[in-house]
Amino acid sequence: MTDHPKIEAAKADRQLILKRWFAAPRALVFRAWTDPAMMAEWWGPRGFTTTVEADARPGGNYAITMQGPDGTRYPMHGQFLEIVPDERVVMLDMFEEHPPEWFAELIRLRGTDADCPTQMRLIVTFADERGGTLLTMVAEFASDLDRDAFAALGMAEGMGESFDRLDELLAASA
């Protein structure tokens, strides 16, 4: 990783792996992933506003709605499957309520509408590194086809902008 934090993206079997280093303590980065008020401040690309309701405990549910600058809403919901304070968050992320145009683009990128995904599993880990925190987010998909479509859809770039916003929030919270 460079001194200037940027997202690193890699692919593995049915996975898109995103990494970003933050100049903030692990406990604060973890809290930004589990505190609804903090999540609303950074979740979503630049120019988006986000509302979050979350019960960050194993079995707890969450609802996130991102709204783009054009007014388009991207609702998602899910469940926290695992929470290990300051170390790990595992979430089942469901996005079946995203706009039809978003699904049309996903289907175009997949080349088929058969078994079009409506959910993914996110595994987020937090590790001490270089006086800050290395966040690793693994998005698990049902197939490599789905992984590649989400990559082509710009998931890494969108999360990169979210992580830029998270970096700004963490700096202001320190």
Automatic annotation (TrEMBL):
* InterPro entries the UniProt entry points to: ASHA1/2-like_C, START-like_dom_sf
Q: Can you tell me which family this protein belongs to?
A: Belongs to the AHA1 family.
| Coiled-coil segments | none
Q: Name one Pfam family in it.
A: AHSA1
Name recorded for this polypeptide: SRPBCC domain-containing protein
SUPFAM superfamilies to which the protein is assigned, alphabetical: Bet v1-like (SSF55961)
* Domain Activator of Hsp90 ATPase homologue 1/2-like C-terminal, chain residue ranges per copy: 24-170
